[in-house]
Amino acid sequence: MSQKKSPHFELRSGNVDALLLALHTADTSALRDDLLSRFEATPDFFSNDVIALDLRSLEDGQRPELGAVIDTLSTLKARAIGVVARQEQHDWAQACGLPMLDSQSRRGNGRAGARDAEPAAAASEAPAPAAAPAPAAAPTPEPPRAATTMLIDRPLRSGQQIYAHGDVVIMDVVSFGAEVIAEGNIHIYAPLRGRALAGVKGNPDARIFCTCLEPELISIAGIYRTAEQTLPPDVLGKPAQVRLADETLILEPLRMK
Protein backbone atom coordinates (compact mmCIF):
# COMPACT_ATOMS: atom_id res chain seq x y z
CA MET A 1 0.00 0.00 0.00
CA SER A 2 1.37 3.39 -0.94
CA GLN A 3 2.46 5.60 1.95
CA LYS A 4 2.40 8.75 -0.17
CA LYS A 5 0.62 11.68 1.45
CA SER A 6 -2.88 12.21 0.12
CA PRO A 7 -4.11 15.70 -0.80
CA HIS A 8 -7.63 14.68 0.24
CA PHE A 9 -7.18 13.69 3.91
CA GLU A 10 -4.69 13.32 6.74
CA LEU A 11 -4.63 11.39 10.00
CA ARG A 12 -3.53 13.31 13.07
CA SER A 13 -3.41 12.61 16.77
CA GLY A 14 -5.60 14.84 18.90
CA ASN A 15 -7.89 15.17 21.88
CA VAL A 16 -11.67 15.41 21.74
CA ASP A 17 -13.60 17.09 24.54
CA ALA A 18 -16.42 14.89 25.82
CA LEU A 19 -18.55 14.70 28.92
CA LEU A 20 -18.17 11.70 31.21
CA LEU A 21 -21.39 10.16 32.52
CA ALA A 22 -20.29 8.22 35.61
CA LEU A 23 -22.75 5.46 36.42
CA HIS A 24 -23.33 4.63 40.10
CA THR A 25 -26.13 2.10 39.65
CA ALA A 26 -26.99 -0.90 37.49
CA ASP A 27 -30.69 -0.03 37.67
CA THR A 28 -31.14 1.49 34.22
CA SER A 29 -34.83 2.25 34.81
CA ALA A 30 -34.00 4.38 37.84
CA LEU A 31 -31.13 5.99 35.93
CA ARG A 32 -33.43 6.83 33.02
CA ASP A 33 -36.04 8.35 35.33
CA ASP A 34 -33.38 10.42 37.08
CA LEU A 35 -31.86 11.69 33.83
CA LEU A 36 -35.22 12.56 32.31
CA SER A 37 -36.48 14.32 35.42
CA ARG A 38 -33.26 16.33 35.56
CA PHE A 39 -32.94 17.35 31.92
CA GLU A 40 -36.19 16.72 30.05
CA ALA A 41 -37.47 20.21 30.93
CA THR A 42 -34.45 21.72 29.12
CA PRO A 43 -34.45 19.75 25.83
CA ASP A 44 -31.48 21.69 24.41
CA PHE A 45 -29.32 21.23 27.50
CA PHE A 46 -26.92 18.78 25.84
CA SER A 47 -27.25 20.20 22.29
CA ASN A 48 -25.74 17.07 20.69
CA ASP A 49 -22.87 16.89 23.19
CA VAL A 50 -20.75 13.75 22.99
CA ILE A 51 -20.62 11.61 26.13
CA ALA A 52 -18.51 8.69 27.30
CA LEU A 53 -20.03 6.19 29.73
CA ASP A 54 -17.76 5.85 32.75
CA LEU A 55 -18.28 2.48 34.47
CA ARG A 56 -15.37 2.60 36.89
CA SER A 57 -17.50 3.56 39.91
CA LEU A 58 -19.71 0.49 39.59
CA GLU A 59 -19.19 -2.30 42.09
CA ASP A 60 -18.01 -5.74 40.97
CA GLY A 61 -20.92 -7.65 39.50
CA GLN A 62 -22.98 -4.57 38.59
CA ARG A 63 -23.74 -4.68 34.87
CA PRO A 64 -26.22 -2.04 33.68
CA GLU A 65 -27.89 -2.41 30.29
CA LEU A 66 -25.75 0.08 28.40
CA GLY A 67 -27.99 0.03 25.33
CA ALA A 68 -30.79 1.48 27.46
CA VAL A 69 -28.48 4.19 28.77
CA ILE A 70 -27.44 5.07 25.21
CA ASP A 71 -31.11 5.31 24.16
CA THR A 72 -31.86 7.62 27.10
CA LEU A 73 -29.00 9.91 26.15
CA SER A 74 -30.26 9.99 22.57
CA THR A 75 -33.68 11.09 23.87
CA LEU A 76 -31.90 14.01 25.56
CA LYS A 77 -30.03 14.93 22.32
CA ALA A 78 -26.69 13.58 23.55
CA ARG A 79 -24.50 11.07 21.74
CA ALA A 80 -22.63 8.27 23.47
CA ILE A 81 -19.25 7.79 21.78
CA GLY A 82 -17.47 5.25 23.96
CA VAL A 83 -16.98 3.52 27.29
CA VAL A 84 -14.40 4.10 30.02
CA ALA A 85 -14.06 1.00 32.18
CA ARG A 86 -11.79 -1.06 34.37
CA GLN A 87 -10.01 -3.93 32.64
CA GLU A 88 -12.25 -6.56 34.23
CA GLN A 89 -15.34 -4.76 32.85
CA HIS A 90 -14.22 -4.75 29.23
CA ASP A 91 -15.68 -8.10 28.14
CA TRP A 92 -19.31 -7.31 28.95
CA ALA A 93 -19.05 -3.55 28.31
CA GLN A 94 -17.97 -4.11 24.70
CA ALA A 95 -21.31 -5.80 23.96
CA CYS A 96 -22.97 -2.36 23.65
CA GLY A 97 -21.05 -1.76 20.42
CA LEU A 98 -19.17 1.34 21.57
CA PRO A 99 -15.36 1.51 21.57
CA MET A 100 -13.40 1.26 24.79
CA LEU A 101 -11.82 4.60 25.69
CA ASP A 102 -9.19 5.63 28.18
CA SER A 103 -9.24 8.67 30.42
CA GLN A 104 -6.57 11.32 29.89
CA SER A 105 -4.98 10.73 33.30
CA ARG A 106 -4.70 6.96 32.77
CA ARG A 107 -3.09 7.39 29.36
CA GLY A 108 -0.59 9.80 30.88
CA ASN A 109 0.35 7.30 33.58
CA GLY A 110 0.78 4.57 30.99
CA ARG A 111 3.18 6.64 28.92
CA ALA A 112 5.22 7.55 31.96
CA GLY A 113 5.54 3.90 32.92
CA ALA A 114 6.79 2.99 29.45
CA ARG A 115 9.42 5.72 29.55
CA ASP A 116 10.64 4.58 32.96
CA ALA A 117 11.03 0.98 31.74
CA GLU A 118 13.08 1.76 28.65
CA PRO A 119 16.25 3.13 30.33
CA ALA A 120 16.35 0.11 32.68
CA ALA A 121 16.33 -2.30 29.74
CA ALA A 122 19.06 -0.34 27.98
CA ALA A 123 21.24 -0.35 31.07
CA SER A 124 21.12 -4.15 31.38
CA GLU A 125 22.51 -4.53 27.84
CA ALA A 126 25.09 -1.78 27.99
CA PRO A 127 28.85 -2.68 27.91
CA ALA A 128 31.24 -1.83 30.70
CA PRO A 129 31.43 1.88 31.50
CA ALA A 130 34.95 2.20 30.04
CA ALA A 131 33.77 1.06 26.62
CA ALA A 132 30.46 2.85 26.65
CA PRO A 133 30.13 5.91 24.45
CA ALA A 134 29.45 9.23 26.07
CA PRO A 135 25.70 9.64 26.56
CA ALA A 136 24.00 12.13 24.32
CA ALA A 137 22.80 15.27 26.02
CA ALA A 138 19.10 15.14 26.78
CA PRO A 139 17.10 17.70 24.83
CA THR A 140 16.02 20.71 26.83
CA PRO A 141 12.25 20.56 27.23
CA GLU A 142 10.33 23.53 25.96
CA PRO A 143 8.68 25.58 28.70
CA PRO A 144 4.89 25.28 28.74
CA ARG A 145 3.11 27.99 26.84
CA ALA A 146 1.48 30.58 29.02
CA ALA A 147 -2.28 30.50 28.67
CA THR A 148 -3.57 33.69 27.11
CA THR A 149 -6.87 35.43 27.81
CA MET A 150 -9.48 35.08 25.08
CA LEU A 151 -11.63 38.12 24.30
CA ILE A 152 -15.07 37.70 22.72
CA ASP A 153 -16.81 40.94 21.76
CA ARG A 154 -19.88 39.51 20.04
CA PRO A 155 -23.01 37.76 21.33
CA LEU A 156 -23.00 33.98 21.59
CA ARG A 157 -26.13 32.53 20.03
CA SER A 158 -27.87 29.23 20.81
CA GLY A 159 -25.73 26.28 19.69
CA GLN A 160 -22.44 28.21 19.72
CA GLN A 161 -19.58 27.09 21.95
CA ILE A 162 -16.37 28.83 23.05
CA TYR A 163 -13.39 26.97 24.56
CA ALA A 164 -10.55 28.91 26.22
CA HIS A 165 -7.28 27.33 27.37
CA GLY A 166 -6.91 30.14 29.90
CA ASP A 167 -9.33 32.87 30.96
CA VAL A 168 -12.08 34.21 28.73
CA VAL A 169 -13.67 37.66 28.70
CA ILE A 170 -17.03 38.06 26.96
CA MET A 171 -18.41 41.51 26.25
CA ASP A 172 -21.88 40.52 25.01
CA VAL A 173 -24.79 38.28 25.91
CA VAL A 174 -24.41 34.50 26.23
CA SER A 175 -27.80 33.34 24.97
CA PHE A 176 -29.84 30.30 25.98
CA GLY A 177 -28.26 27.21 24.40
CA ALA A 178 -24.80 28.80 24.08
CA GLU A 179 -21.85 27.46 26.02
CA VAL A 180 -18.65 28.99 27.41
CA ILE A 181 -15.92 26.57 28.54
CA ALA A 182 -12.64 27.72 30.07
CA GLU A 183 -9.70 26.09 31.81
CA GLY A 184 -9.38 29.32 33.80
CA ASN A 185 -11.82 32.06 34.82
CA ILE A 186 -14.87 33.27 32.93
CA HIS A 187 -15.73 37.00 32.88
CA ILE A 188 -19.03 37.99 31.26
CA TYR A 189 -19.91 41.69 31.06
CA ALA A 190 -23.46 41.00 29.91
CA PRO A 191 -26.28 38.58 30.72
CA LEU A 192 -25.32 34.93 31.11
CA ARG A 193 -28.32 32.88 30.00
CA GLY A 194 -26.57 29.81 28.60
CA ARG A 195 -23.95 27.55 30.16
CA ALA A 196 -20.63 28.59 31.73
CA LEU A 197 -18.06 25.98 32.79
CA ALA A 198 -14.86 27.26 34.39
CA GLY A 199 -11.81 25.31 35.57
CA VAL A 200 -12.73 22.38 33.32
CA LYS A 201 -9.30 20.77 33.68
CA GLY A 202 -9.89 20.43 37.41
CA ASN A 203 -8.89 23.90 38.64
CA PRO A 204 -10.94 24.49 41.83
CA ASP A 205 -9.68 28.09 42.11
CA ALA A 206 -11.35 29.16 38.87
CA ARG A 207 -14.31 31.55 39.11
CA ILE A 208 -17.18 32.87 37.06
CA PHE A 209 -17.91 36.61 37.07
CA CYS A 210 -21.05 37.98 35.47
CA THR A 211 -22.97 41.26 35.42
CA CYS A 212 -26.36 39.52 35.00
CA LEU A 213 -26.61 35.94 36.23
CA GLU A 214 -29.46 33.98 34.59
CA PRO A 215 -27.71 30.71 33.60
CA GLU A 216 -28.93 27.37 32.33
CA LEU A 217 -25.89 25.84 34.00
CA ILE A 218 -22.83 27.00 35.90
CA SER A 219 -19.91 24.74 36.75
CA ILE A 220 -16.47 24.98 38.32
CA ALA A 221 -14.05 22.03 38.16
CA GLY A 222 -16.92 19.65 37.41
CA ILE A 223 -19.20 20.80 40.26
CA TYR A 224 -22.32 22.16 38.60
CA ARG A 225 -25.71 23.72 39.24
CA THR A 226 -28.59 23.90 36.76
CA ALA A 227 -31.49 26.26 36.24
CA GLU A 228 -33.76 23.78 38.02
CA GLN A 229 -32.29 25.05 41.29
CA THR A 230 -33.63 28.57 41.62
CA LEU A 231 -30.87 31.08 42.28
CA PRO A 232 -31.00 33.22 45.43
CA PRO A 233 -32.72 36.58 44.85
CA ASP A 234 -29.55 38.55 45.70
CA VAL A 235 -27.77 37.10 42.62
CA LEU A 236 -30.53 36.17 40.16
CA GLY A 237 -30.36 38.61 37.26
CA LYS A 238 -27.73 40.65 39.10
CA PRO A 239 -23.94 41.03 39.10
CA ALA A 240 -22.47 37.97 40.81
CA GLN A 241 -19.47 35.73 41.14
CA VAL A 242 -19.39 31.95 41.41
CA ARG A 243 -16.60 30.16 43.25
CA LEU A 244 -15.92 26.75 44.74
CA ALA A 245 -15.48 26.01 48.44
CA ASP A 246 -15.36 22.48 49.88
CA GLU A 247 -16.79 21.09 46.61
CA THR A 248 -19.80 23.40 46.91
CA LEU A 249 -20.64 26.23 44.53
CA ILE A 250 -20.83 29.58 46.30
CA LEU A 251 -22.85 32.33 44.61
CA GLU A 252 -22.15 35.85 45.88
CA PRO A 253 -23.29 39.32 44.81
CA LEU A 254 -20.63 41.20 42.90
CA ARG A 255 -20.30 44.73 44.21
CA MET A 256 -20.14 47.11 41.26
CA LYS A 257 -18.71 50.42 42.43
UniProtKB/TrEMBL annotation:
Residues 130-144 have a biased composition (Pro residues). Residues 119-129 have a biased composition (Low complexity). Gene3D superfamilies: 2.160.20.70, 3.30.70.260. This is Probable septum site-determining protein MinC. The keyword Signal does not apply. Residues 9-73 form the Septum formation inhibitor MinC N-terminal domain. It comes from Cupriavidus gilardii. The keyword Cell cycle applies. HAMAP family: MinC. Cell division inhibitor that blocks the formation of polar Z ring septums. Rapidly oscillates between the poles of the cell to destabilize FtsZ filaments that have formed before they mature into polar Z rings. Prevents FtsZ polymerization. InterPro entries: CAP/MinC_C, MinC, MinC_C_sf, MinC_N, Septum_form_inhib_MinC_C. Interacts with MinD and FtsZ. GO terms for biological process: cell morphogenesis; division septum assembly; regulation of cell division; regulation of cell septum assembly.
